[in-house]
Design goal:
Elements (H helix, E strand, L loop, with lengths): L8 H13 L8 E2 H7 L4 H13 L3 E3 L5 E4 L1 H10 L18 H17 L7 H19 L5 H18 L2 H10 L4
Antiparallel strand pairs: 1-3, 2-3
């Protein structure tokens, strides 16, 4: 199958989130609305993006209530689009702009943080700060020229917040983006 090269950031994010939610059982039906919400989309936006992915043959509709599943082509697309841990670029890098591979890594970490946010036991102020930093990062990712420095500062702030949350897994992912092990 040929992977459509014209997948935009929204389509890639939704595809990756659906894959993450069905990782234990490929082909599992997932709510396009819940997956979209996880990556910052409202219901209409989730439906619009999922419709494009359905038309591209990367998703299949499982129910009229919005359940979708990755097709074999969709799983192939996720594998191609996902940054490989092959000793290639790590962290955010020093380039002024985030390249596509780093944008994908940032998208994955922000989606995971957004999912975990309410379960971290953070005080209201810290949770508000975390969500504001995530929104800033997500805004940068919608830019045609996402700035590495802005994303880095936000992740440094998030790392400080995660220290209080005692969430080692999330801190590890953020640390890796910041250039740690």
């Amino acid at each position: 199958m040929n992977i459509p090269p014209e997948l935009n950031q929204e389509e890639r994010s939704l595809l990756a989130e659906i894959d993450r939610r069905s990782a234990d059982a490929p082909g599992t039906a997932v709510s396009m609305y819940e997956a979209g919400e996880q990556v910052g989309m409202d219901r209409q936006q989730s439906a619009r993006v999922a419709e494009k992915l359905l038309a591209d043959g990367l998703l299949e509709l499982r129910s009229l209530s919005g359940a979708v599943a990755l097709t074999p082509g969709g799983r192939e697309a996720v594998a191609v689009l996902a940054p490989a841990d092959d000793g290639g670029p790590s962290g955010l890098g020093d380039d002024p702009l985030l390249d596509e591979t780093r944008q994908q890594a940032v998208t994955g970490v922000t989606a995971d943080l957004r999912q975990r946010a309410g379960k971290m036991g953070l005080e209201f102020e810290a949770l508000s700060e975390l969500l504001a930093d995530l929104k800033t990062i997500e805004a940068q990712l919608t830019s045609p020229r996402p700035r590495t420095a802005i994303v880095r500062v936000c992740f440094e702030s998030i790392d400080e917040i995660l220290q209080a949350a005692d969430d080692d897994e999330a801190r590890g992912a953020v640390g890796k983006l910041l250039g740690g092990p």
